[in-house]
Amino acid sequence: GEDVEQSLFLSVREGDSSVINCTYTDSSSTYLYWYKQEPGAGLQLLTYIFSNMDMKQDQRLTVLLNKKDKHLSLRIADTQTGDSAIYFCAENNAGNMLTFGGGTRLMVKP
Amino acid sequence: DGGITQSPKYLFRKEGQNVTLSCEQNLNHDAMYWYRQDPGQGLRLIYYSQIVNDFQKGDIAEGYSVSREKKESFPLTVTSAQKNPTAFYLCASSGVYTDTQYFGPGTRLTVL
């Protein structure tokens, strides 16, 4: 079956880089997503990567995809206190059903 | 100002009562979705609708019902049959069924 796993918690200092990791199991996924959730709010789409790509960069965000190992990562450069939130990775299957990981809580210390 | 709105933001319900959560979008999206989020967990799909007047059960549909009479609206009813309804409910939409999903701000439901 489908399963998406993330580590629960990550703490970094302001100005450092953050790397949030995700593993997935559905090799038929066409897109993989990263969403950000601030307290009490909905999910904000950060970025996504098509499954035939290895890397995608968007300003401070870099997504790396290792399809062989089914491993996805999100790197946030120059992490700011406003980046503190829960980050969810999600994969879609052929029917566009999204399967979410449990979320990684990023805490940025000043 | 385009987007997805959910109301109310907070909702309290007594046990045994049905309650309806609103989701509206003005993005002209065909597909809409309802998810449930429990503390410390990811999202689980309750129902989805690919097009007006059609909807399908997700992974945890028991105790919930939906309707899709208008393209812009996808209300969710939490019935008394739902044994543990206290949760954060998120609505999403996508242009067509296979497109990227965008989320509303959520409704927090508490059963007293």
Describe the structure.
The complex is a heterodimer of chains A (110) and B (112). Chain A is mainly β. Chain A has strands at 4-6, 9-13, 18-24, 31-37, 43-50, 55-58, 61-66, 71-76, 85-92, 98-100, 104-109. In chain A, a hairpin with a 4-residue loop joins β7 and β8 (71-76). Chain A is globular, with a radius of gyration of 13 Å. Chain B contains no helices and 11 strands. In chain B, strands 2, 4, 5, 6, 9, 10 and 11 form a 7-stranded mixed β-sheet that branches. In chain B, strands 1-3-8-7 form a 4-stranded antiparallel β-sheet, with no helix packed on it. At the A-B interface, β4 and β5 of A face β5, β9 and β10 of B.
Summarize this, please?
Chain A is mainly beta and 110 residues long. Chain A has strands at residues 4-6, 9-13, 18-24, 31-37, 43-50, 55-58, 61-66, 71-76, 85-92, 98-100, 104-109. The model of chain A has no long low-confidence stretch (mean pLDDT 92).
Key terms:
heterodimer, A: 110 residues, mainly beta, 6-stranded mixed beta sheet, B: 112 residues, 7-stranded mixed beta sheet, 4-stranded antiparallel beta sheet, 11 strands
Radius of gyration of chain A using CA atoms only: 13 Å
Question: What profile does the largest beta sheet of chain B have?
Answer: 7 strands, mixed
Q: Largest interface here, residues on each chain?
A: A-B, 22 and 24 residues
Overall 3D shape of chain A: globular
The H-and-E topology of chain B, N to C, reads as EEEEEEEEEEE
Rg of chain B over CA atoms, rounded to whole Å, is 13 Å
Number of strands of chain B: 11
The helix-and-strand class of chain A reads mainly beta
Count of alpha and pi helical runs of chain A: 0
Low-confidence stretches of chain B: none
Shape of chain B: globular
The termini of chain A sit apart by 41 Å
Query: How many separate helices of chain B?
Result: 0
Work out the number of β strands of chain A.
11
